[in-house]
What we know:
Helix content is 69%, strand content 0%.
Amino acid sequence: MESPNSQVVLVRSKSLGPKLLVSIGAHEFFKLEMWKAALTELVATASLMFTLTTSIIACLDSQEEPNPKLLVPLAVFIIAFLFLMVTIPLSGGHMSPVFTFIAALKGIITLSRALIYVISQCIGSIIGFLIIKKVMQQKLAETYSLGGCAIGGIKPQEALLLEFSCTFVVLFVGVTLGFDKRRAKDVGLPMVCLVVAGAMGLAVFVSVTVTGQAGYAGVGLNPARCLGPALIQGGPLWEGHWVFWIGPFLACVLYYGVSVNLPKEGLVWVDDGESGILKLAGDCFYVKD
């Protein structure tokens, strides 16, 4: 004969299962819209990898500019802006496990959708770099490691710090605006894309100029982008590969902790002159009769 306590535990266990499935978004596995969005992420990530990587290698291989590395952030900015404009209305425009992870942390997407998005992004990256491998000259592929993420020339801990810091900058500048529905609606989609792409270009610029090391490829900002060439090209790209996963995800965790404590209503302006320095000085030296 069951005791009342065992019956309570049984009822709780039965109710906990469906509630947990709902909270992680298991129902989305049966929604066609989610799979269409995941396919969009796959295609967009593959296209982004192909376009961005070939453009970056073309910049680095250019002999016309005194410092072709300065062209890389500009290429990142322009290409990221174009892809964000197209994909944000369709799937959210993540194209990176970093944006997917922070979106899941903030509850913008479910854990189930986040999992499918990340898998799609990784598959898309592999497809994109497979295409690059087929069409690129072997010499260029070897010289620039297929455009993969390499930390040669600096220590892993230095690369980790750069990856963490630059990813946090992108999140703080871009995601703070992009994930704020009211502000994003006020400024419009083009401005949101401009800010996010600008933050990415700025992060790349900082990483490729501050170190000055030829073997360092700059921050990845996208673990999926680093995974594709590592699987296809291999070799030195596996050295320190963990940096391009751990750094961004630590930045996401820190940013989430910061973002939940950001002001919700924004800056509240006081009336003109109430707290001015002259007003404060007058209050200090004014002697009341």
